[in-house]
Design brief:
- With about 425 residues, the protein is an alpha+beta fold.
- It folds into 4 domains: about 80 residues, Phosphorylase Kinase, domain 1 (2-Layer Sandwich); about 180 residues, Transferase(Phosphotransferase), domain 1 (Orthogonal Bundle), CATH 1.10.510; about 35 residues, no CATH class; about 80 residues, Carboxypeptidase-like, regulatory domain (Immunoglobulin-like, Sandwich), CATH 2.60.40.
- About 35% of the residues lie in helices and about 20% in strands.
- The chain is built from 14 helices and 16 strands.
- Strand 14 and strand 15 form a beta hairpin.
- Helix 4 runs antiparallel to helix 10 and helix 9 runs antiparallel to helix 10.
């Protein structure tokens, strides 16, 4: 085993596949853990493996997103090729499904939604993954899903595709119909593959399985999958419809954009998940024995010293005290909205409010979608409007509005947003922990 690549010191081998070996290492100049992906010398001179390996490094280096593994460097040493990348501690979805073949619907939707977010960013950059499958989705110990292995990705930044016309690259069980036929692909092919993964997570099996009479490729192209609710009656019809639209045979019948799929999953999750979705994944991984109680507590403990800690049990997260506090806060919020609605209807001593959430009759002039990590109260012009995550955009009057994001464990954020008629703006913010 090689011991050093530049300023990176190899510690141990952690995984190996047909074409590459993964090592745990440390980048000594920054004292941070990294992973080193090394192309096996046995395949380095076969076909286009070396060129694909280098393209993977260059493609990933241009994609900076929370749900895509980060690449730090690419090295050639004594003829060998190495990618220095982010070390993602956790478990891949393939191994998780080996332990638990059927996941809770909210957990499955959260995994698919995070994967779709990463794909949406890649698709916006013109990159197609082309090999979405459980083994290429990594669930980190902090509840973040990472897209891995862009080895056969299509990237417009590089001339040529390294794929012969009429051939289909990928994993057969997760290919789209057009990928099997070797047709020209677009983002909707990745959505079909992600739909297969989501189906498998909630149904406990893949939608298309080869048998003695028909191949899996034949079934993907020509046959409908078994109805999900026959395999798992607990799957809500809303999620069933989301998956069905991903698995349409004709790509024009699938989601119009990856962002549309993200929004559909966000709406589904918002009505069913009682906590931050990262926290929900961490909690589930602890339940499955992937994380110890100490590891889960280290992730979920609020940044502010003295905040509530996570002891690794669901009843702690939903104790009677927490439920009573949440109920009281909900009642107070409801009373506030009722009072504001009364003042709006009666026109007593107050102009028309800027926030028009749920208002009927008069059409809104614009909207604001707010995405905050990890979560925040959203105050518009001094008025509490919503608490993230929420799916429906806030309906606002035309003009400037002061948006303040508040979380007791993080630094508040205050921004001015100008709303234009007929336009829905998106505000994305990552909060920083309190310094004290």
């Amino acid at each position: 085993m090689i011991e050093r690549i530049g300023n990176v010191r190899i510690i141990e081998e952690i995984a190996a596949g047909g074409m590459a070996v993964i090592y745990r290492a440390v980048q000594e100049t920054l004292n941070r853990p990294v992973a080193v992906k090394a192309l096996k010398t046995a395949v380095q001179h076969e076909g286009t493996f070396a060129e694909r390996f280098e393209r993977e490094a260059r493609t990933l280096s241009l994609l900076q997103h929370e749900n895509i593994v980060h690449v730090y460097d690419f090295q050639k040493l004594h003829g060998a090729l190495f990618i220095i990348m982010e070390l993602v501690e956790g478990i891949d979805l393939y191994d998780l499904l080996e332990k638990t073949p059927m996941l809770p619907v909210d957990v499955a939707a959260i995994i698919a939604m995070q994967a779709a977010r990463g794909l949406d960013y890649a698709h916006w950059r013109g990159v197609l993954h082309r090999d979405i499958k459980p083994a290429n989705l990594m669930l980190s110990k902090n509840g973040v899903v990472k897209l891995m292995d862009f080895g056969i990705a299509s990237d417009p930044s590089f001339p040529g595709d390294l794929t012969e016309a009429g051939t289909g690259l990928g994993t057969p069980s997760y290919m789209s119909p057009e990928q099997i036929l070797g047709d020209r692909l677009d983002f909707r092919s990745d959505l079909f593959s992600l739909g297969i993964v989501l189906y498998q997570m909630v149904a406990g099996r893949k939608p298309f399985i080869e048998d003695a009479h028909k191949s899996v490729m034949h079934k993907i192209r020509l046959e409908a999958p078994p109805p999900i609710r026959e395999l798992n009656p607990e799957v809500p019809r809303e999620l069933e419809r989301i998956i069905q639209r991903c698995l349409e045979k004709r790509k024009q019948d699938r989601w119009r954009s990856t962002q549309d799929l993200v929004l559909a999953l966000e709406r589904f999750i918002a009505r069913r998940c009682e906590m931050n979705y990262h926290a929900r994944l961490v909690h589930f991984l602890h339940e499955q024995g992937v994380l110890t109680a100490a590891e889960a507590d280290a992730v979920l403990r609020p940044a502010r010293e003295g905040g509530p800690a996570y002891a690794g049990a669901r009843h702690r997260l939903f104790s009677p005290e927490v439920r009573r506090t949440a109920a009281l806060q909900g009642a107070l919020t409801a009373c506030s909205f009722l009072l504001l609605a009364f003042l709006h209807v009666s026109r007593i001593g107050s102009p028309q409010p800027a926030v028009l959430v749920g208002t009927e009759g008069e059409l809104p002039t614009g909207g604001l979608r707010v995405v905050v990590e990890p979560w925040a109260e959203v105050h518009i012009d001094g008025q509490l409007a919503e608490v993230t995550p929420f799916a429906r955009p806030l309906r606002l009057s035309e003009g400037p509005h002061v948006v303040e994001l508040r979380n007791p464990y993080f630094e508040p954020v205050r921004q001015v947003v100008r709303v234009q008629p007929g336009v829905t703006e998106t505000l994305r913010v990552t909060l920083r922990p309190n310094k004290r």
